[in-house]
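Quick one - inputs below.
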Amino acid sequence: MILVMVRVMALGLWRDRAGLVLVFVLPPLVFIVFATVFSAGASGRLDIRVGVVDQIGGADSQRLVDSLQRRLGGRLTRSPNVAALEDAIESGQVDAGLVLHGDLADASTPVTVLNHPGRKAAGEVLTAQVNAAVGEDLPELMLRREVARLAPLLALTPDQVRRSAGMPPGPASTPPFAAQRILPGGDPLVIYYAGAVSILFLMFTAMQGAMSLIDERRAGLWLRLGLSTGGVAPLLGGRMLWLTALGVIQALVLFQIAAAVYGVPVLTNVPAWSATAVCAAAASAGIALALAAACNTRDQAQPVSTFTFLILAAIGGSMAPRFLMPEALQTLGWLTPHTWAIEAYQTVLWRGLVNTTVLEAWTVLAGFAGVGFLAALWLEARRRL
Amino acid sequence: MAVERTEAVLHLAKATRRYGDRAALDQVDLELEEGEVYALIGRNGAGKSTLAKAAIGALALDEGSVRVLGADPSRDRYVRREIGVAPQEIALYLHLTVAENLDVFAALAGVSRAERGAAVARAMDETVCGERAAERLENLSSGWRRRANLAAAIVHRPRLLVLDEPTEGLDTETLLILRRLIARLRADRTAILLISHNAEDVAVLADRLGVMEAGRLTVEGRPAELMAWAFGGRTELVVRLSAAAPLVEPILAARGLVASDQGLCWSGMVVDALAQAREIEMALRSVDVELRELTVHPPGLDALIGWATG
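Output:
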C-alpha cells in the first residue's frame, strides 16, 4: 500500500516537466551562484575593478601597471588624473584607485591606494595585489629599496649602491622565506552552501509534494482513499517515503555538481553523506506533511509554508553564513533543521568526521521527521472523522 | 477475515452527528439489504452526504452506530474492502491513466496483484471506458471521467456501493451505461445507496426511497407507495394567466390552488384534475381572462420532498 502511494506520487512528478525542473535544475543553479561568490572569496579571487593614475611615467611604474593588469584580468583602467580617478570611485565605475606618484625605488611611500568608505574591502584587496605584484614581478625593485634603506647601516660604498641600482629586471634571486601548500579537501564555504541550499530547497520540494494531500481532500479522493484497508497510516507513510527518497535524489544531484565543479569530497564520505541526506530529507518531509495536514486549502498552505520555510532558512543559515550572525541568532539557529543539516554536512565533508555533532544532528533531524509525521497522522485522522 | 452473509449490508441505528448546535444527522435509522437500491433525496444541506459519509465509516458519530456487514467500518478495516464509493467529484488522480487509476484503487482495496489485471479489465468493461484505458484523466472529457469514477468504485467488487449524485452532468449514453450497471449490480446482490436529485433516476432505479430534512429521515418507503400515500389520487394542476386578474382569484383559490409569479401562475394538488381544469377554463372565459397555459401532471419528486418536509 505504501509502495502504491509512492508510485502515484512518482508518476505525478515524472509527468510534470515544470516540477522536474524546479526539483532538479533550480537548486543546483542557485547553489552554483552562491558557491561561485563564496569560493572566490575564500580563494582570494575577488573581482574588483581598479582605476590607476601613473604620475611617474617611468619604466618601473609601467611594469607595475602591466603586472596589475595581468592580475586583475583586464579590470584595470587608466585615469588621466587624480580628480578623475576620485570621480570614478565616487560614481562606482571602479571599486578602488591606485596613484603612482613617487620614485618606486626611492620614495618612502610611492604609491597611494584610494578607496570609498563604503568599499573598504576593495582597498584592502588592491593593496594586497600591489604588494604581491611588486614582490613577485618586480623583485629587483624591492631589493633596490632595501639596499637604499640599509646602505647607511651596512656602510655600503656609493659604488656598491650604484651597482645594486643597475641590477637588471627579472625574477627574485632569493627564495621565498615561507612557501604555501594547499591541503586536499573541499572549500568549507562551498560545502556550507551545498548543505544550506540543499536543505532550503528540500523544504520547498517536500511541501509541493505534501500539498497533494490538500488536493486529494478537496477532490473527494481522500474519501475514497480512506476506504483503503490499511487506513491513513500507509497513505501518509507512502508520501513520507516518496518525499524522503525525492529529497535524497535532489541532494545527490546538487552534491554531485558540487563534487564535479568545486571538488567537494562526497565520494570519499559516501556513508556519512548518505545518512545526513536521508535525515535531512526525512525532516523536510515530516515538517511539510504536518503543515499540509494542518491547512485546509492550497491558498492557506502556500503562504504559511513559504513564511515558515523562509524564516527557518534565514535563522538556520541557509541564506547567509551562520558565522556572520550575532550570537543570539546563532543560538536560535539550533532550533531549525537547517542549522543541523548544514553542520552535519560540513563536519562530514569538510572535516571528514562523524563525531558527536554529526550524531546529534542525525538524531535531531530524525526527530523533526518523526514528530512531523506523527503530527500529520494525528491531524489527518482528526480531519477524517 | 471472511465476512458473513447473514447481516443486513448496511445498518445505521440512531446515527447522530452534531456540529455545534446543529444536528447534521439526527437519530437516523436505516437498513439496506443485499441487492437493494435505496435512494436518498432531500434539499441541499438536508444531510444526505453526511449520511453517506457515516455509512462508509468516514465520519465519527456522536451517538448511534453504523454497521456494514455487521462490522464498524471506521474501526474494522477488513470490512472496508466490501465498500465502494463514487463521490460527486471526480475522485481520481488526473495525472494517471484510467487503467493506472483503477489499478491503484484496486490495490488500496486489497485486491491481490495477481487478480488486479482482471479486476481492472472487468471494471472498465462494465463502465465501457476500456477504449480510453491508456489515456490520462486530465485529457478526458467529463463524461469519460465520470465513467472512470464509477469504475474505480466497483473495481474491487464491493457489496455496498455508495453513489453520490452519479448522474450529475452525464450524457445520455453514460446515463444508460450507469442504469445498466446498477441493474446488473442489483442482480449481483450488491446493496446500493444512491444519492440523487434526479427524479427519473429514483423512479427507475430505486427499490426504496428516503427523504431527508434537517438531518432526519422524515419519510421512507417504496417510491410508488410513497406517492400514493402522499398524494392519494391527486394530481398537480398548473394554470398560467396572460395577465393578473383579481376577478378570478376566488375561483382558483377555492380549488386549493396557490398563486406565484405575481398572480400569473396558480398551482396545487387536486382530485379529478381534468374535471377541475374544464371548470376553470369555463370560469375564466366567462370573465374574459385569457388562459396562457393549463397543465395537469402526476406529482414528481420535488412535490414529494415538499410534502415530506411540510
